[in-house]
Input
Amino acid sequence: MSYTDKFNKNIYLIVDGQVCQVMDRDYKTQGRQGGLVRLKLLRLKDNTIIEKTLKAGAKLEKIEPVVNKAIFSYKDDDYFYFMDEETYETFGVDPEIVGDYVNYLKEGAKLTFLVYKGEIINMRRKQSVQLRVVETEPAVKGNTSTGATKPAKVETGYVLQVPLFVKEGDMIRVNTETGQYTKKGVV
Output
C-alpha cells in the first residue's frame, strides 16, 4: 500500500481493480478539510487516460510490473508471437493488447512488455517506426502543389497518405499515435 501524498509520476498502481500508470499528480489543499490529490492515470489494459480525485492520505496499492523485452516473430489467427530476448522463449500476445499497433508491427521489431502476476498488462508502443513503402503511384511531373499527398502501402499492409515525392522502396518514418507520415529516409 502507498499513500496518495507519497507517490510520484510514472509509478504503477491498482485503481478500481485496474493497473494504471500515474501520468500526472496535482495536490490541492482545502483548508480544514485537508487536501485532495487529483491523478491523471493511463489505464494500461486499454491505453486510455482517466482522471481520479482522492483525499490526501488515501491508500492505493503500488505495484512493480516486470519488464520483458521481446522481438516480434509472427502472427496466426489467434495471437501475435514474440520471442523473449533473455530466455528465447516464444509467447503469444492477445490481439487486444497489440490493438491498432498491428499497422506498424513488422517481423524483428523489438518491443517491451509489462507483466504483472504472470499476465501481460501492456505493450509499450514506440512513438514512431520506420517502414518501407511497397506500393504507391509514381509522382506526376508538374504536380507540385504544396501539401499534396497520395496513398502509399507500407510493408505491414497499412495504407497512409504520403507526400508526392515518396516512391516505392523508400523508407519512411510513421507516427504510431496519429498514423501519419513524418519524414522520408533512414533515421
Observations:
- The chain has three domains: 2-63, 66-124, 128-184.
- The two ends are 44 Å apart (CA to CA).
